[in-house]
Amino acid sequence: QAVVTQEPSLTVSPGGTVTLTCGSSTGAVTSGHYPYWFQQKPGQAPRTLIYDTTNKHSWTPARFSGSLLGGKAALTLSGAQPEDEAEYYCLISYSAARVFGGGTKLTVL
Amino acid sequence: EVQLVESGGGLVKPGGSLRLSCAASGFTFSNAWMSWVRQAPGKGLEWVGRFKSKTDGGTTDYAAPVKGRFTISRDDSKNTLSLQMNSLKTEDTAVYYCTTGCHSWGQGTLVTVSS
């Protein structure tokens, strides 16, 4: 089974910009891996922010965007707010399975 | 509004079985690829498996740790997704979430495997 890697933790200042990345042990992440991004706050179910690399749901704040960067999937937060402090997970699709990354704990400080 | 409500969680002994259900509403269930995702206490998310829509083949895929022990089924007439879990291990202890192809999520149901 493939391994999906994320930064364990990142810190961003309020109003600042931060990029989270998501890599695959099988090689470069491409649009064909249909990367997803999720936000999860303590005690809550996950919430899907980005799907299929760049697509947003109606509830996704405009300050979040998805892309491919240097062979990885990326989630960029521009103009961080205190309420963005959370755990963020990516999900990569392979031919017969999907694999989550280990998560990035984002601190807004 | 999409609603997913899981049920059936509880305490079960190692080697035992449990069946989870997910009641879906607010969307065309028969067209949706449905998935189960779990989260062990204090740990990250783990994809468990999925059931594709019948128009896309109606097949299932499973993660390696549960393959051969877990079975996902669906009843499109009742808008219900199920997860039959057999030969349960302590490491299967987790909150189990039902999702619409990882877009919308239920609130989860806790499964505890312990003697």
Summarize the structure.
The complex is a heterodimer of chains A (109) and B (115). Chain A is mostly beta strands and 109 residues long.
Task: Describe this protein's structure.
The complex is a heterodimer of chains A (109) and B (115). Chain A has 109 residues and is an all-beta fold. Chain A is built from no helices and eleven strands. Chain A has strands at residues 4-6, 9-12, 17-24, 36-40, 47-51, 55-56, 64-69, 72-78, 86-93, 98-100, 104-108. In chain A, a hairpin with a 6-residue loop joins strand 4 (36-40) and strand 5 (47-51). The termini of chain A are far apart. The model of chain A has no long low-confidence stretch (mean pLDDT 97). The model of chain B has no long low-confidence stretch (mean pLDDT 97). Chain B is mostly beta strands. Chain B contains no helices and ten strands. Classes of the chains: A mainly beta (109), B mainly beta (115). The A-B interface holds A 1, 36, 38, 40, 45-48, 51, 57, 87, 89, 91, 96-103 and B 35, 37, 44-47, 50, 61-64, 97, 102-108.
Itemize the secondary structure elements and their pairings.
The complex is a heterodimer of chains A (109) and B (115).
Chain A: E1 4-6, E2 9-12, E3 17-24, E4 36-40, E5 47-51, E6 55-56, E7 64-69, E8 72-78, E9 86-93, E10 98-100, E11 104-108
Parallel strand pairs in A: 2-11
Antiparallel strand pairs in A: 1-3, 3-8, 4-5, 4-9, 5-6, 7-8, 9-10, 9-11
Chain B: E1 3-7, E2 10-12, E3 18-25, E4 34-39, E5 45-51, E6 60-62, E7 70-75, E8 80-85, E9 94-99, E10 109-113
Parallel strand pairs in B: 2-10
Antiparallel strand pairs in B: 1-3, 3-8, 4-5, 4-9, 5-6, 7-8, 9-10
